[in-house]
Amino acid sequence: MELIPTNQEVIALLRETGALRHGHFEYPNGMHADEYVQVARAFRYYQHAKLLSVGLSRRLRSDPEIRAMIKELSIVSPATGTPIAFGICEALHAHQVYWAEKDSESTPMHFKQFIQPAKGEKVLLVDDILRSGERLTELRAIVEAYGAEVVGLAVAVYQPNPTSASFDNLPLFFLAQMDAVYYTDTASCDLCTKGIPLERIWV
């Protein structure tokens, strides 16, 4: 395996660990898809977590602008992305890590008291996967509300869907891109037509 794992190697790792599932899935936004990626299943294993974190950190180091600010760069993630956030911070020798939490699915993200970015702080948003982009959009908004500067996004897996959020001109770094087949309504879903059992995704 190369210093940065290839797209195919990351997908093979996800399949091996059960993080990549094929079938008939309904996402919380109502869309149906033929596969579901749960990167956290791969992060259960130290060797795989290290491989993905170090690989993504090397991709980040290859960008001259990111490389120039590493010593002052803070990593910020949603609570669900803290394993990869700490892995990237360690591999990069970045400044520190913050994470934002939700008290429940219906409440907004927030930082812990006294643990939040400062005005002017340079921030890299990190998560294990970018699919709809909702988590990273919300995270970006609260980071910028503190006056910090978001300089980029980094995810292990980029799996966009038809309604994925746009992040304007922010650079996006990822190890693997995966393209599931999405159906925006049940009437057009071939998987429903074929009678393939449906699994609902909670988050």
What's the helix and strand layout?
Elements: H1 7-16, E1 20-26, E2 32-37, H2 46-61, H3 64-68, E3 73-78, H4 82-92, E4 96-101, E5 110-111, E6 122-130, H5 134-145, E7 149-158, E8 172-177, E9 182-183, H6 190-193, E10 199-200
Parallel strand pairs: 1-10, 3-4, 3-6, 6-7, 7-8
Antiparallel strand pairs: 1-2, 2-9, 4-5
Summarize the structure.
With 203 residues, this protein is of the alpha/beta class. Helix content is 29%, strand content 28%.
Number of strands: 10
- CATH topology group: Rossmann fold
Order of helices and strands: HEEHHEHEEEHEEEHE
Number of helices: 6
Structural class: alpha/beta
Distance between the termini: 32 Å
Mean pLDDT: 94
Spatially, the strands of the biggest sheet line up as 5-4-3-6-7-8
Q: What report would you give on this structure?
A:
- By secondary structure, this protein is α/β, with parallel strands linked by helices.
- It has one domain: Rossmann fold, CATH 3.40.50.2020.
- It is built from 6 helices and 10 strands, in the order H-E-E-H-H-E-H-E-E-E-H-E-E-E-H-E.
- The strands form 2 sheets. Strands 5-4-3-6-7-8 form a 6-stranded mixed beta sheet, with helices on both faces. A 4-stranded mixed beta sheet has the order 9-2-1-10.
- The model has no long low-confidence stretch (mean pLDDT 94).
